[in-house]
Fold these 3 entries.
Entry 1:
Amino acid sequence: MSRKSKQMTDESKPWRQSPFERNKKYIVRRDFRAMRDEFRCNEVLTYDVDHYSRHDNCTAYLFYDTDNKRRIWDVNDDTELEIWQKYFSLLEIADGT
């Protein structure tokens, strides 16, 4: 791997642990506008992955909605990550057993 490739890979690794679990469903708790997206109360999103941008000093949390459209929630480095609970809740789905 070239030095530049390694640097780009390292830049995309978030410096803090994601509060979301991959492939789990989350429900949006309230309407809100993010840096690159808008979210509506009761939307169901499936969490995919996170990426860090050193240039923007933020972590992007990537989800997919029910239409398989990618959704992005950006969180600046100076924002407490616990704020996610204000906007999202883990969607508990009963399995019927």
Entry 2:
Amino acid sequence: MIVLMSLMILFFLIFGLIGYYIMEIGILKDLSIGIIILGLGMFGLLKAAIEMFENHRIDKNKAAN
């Protein structure tokens, strides 16, 4: 799941950057900026997923008890 989220972030960032530098039309350039922002915003979601994974690990919880 975390690998899939990382690949999605990478895809959004690459797709957005390529679109931003290639497009000449204003609306498509704005859409590319939005895709870049979406990719950057997903970093927070990825961080939360990693923290949830670390807090709910079975081997970590058994060692603490």
Entry 3:
Amino acid sequence: MKKKIVFVMILATLFGACGPARVGSNPDPIQHEERLLLLDRAYKSKIRLVSEQARKLDSGQLEVIMEIQNQSNKDLWTDIQVIFKDADGVEVDKTNWEPQMFHRRELTTYKKVSLPATAVDYRIVIRAAKTEG
């Protein structure tokens, strides 16, 4: 009987300590601050945002132009996605993941246009390519 009580107490302690994060514990996640999100740590020292520009076209769509530099000595195959948001920060458009190669030590210009005219902000997400080439 004593072993069962000890076992239950250990389980309660383990499961009690593994709860979810407190609501509001991270009020400003990086997705709200950064326009370029690198999902792979290895790319943080290899990919650098050189310049960014966003403008509204006559049609009301948001055009995004970024210059991204590969600082490594190897070509980097990545997947890239653009998320467009409205004035309230709500996602209104998202592109499919597209393969993109950043040639070694070169500057690459990346350009996308939102479909809805309600887009006023954006995030570009880069991850390691699921398949190379």
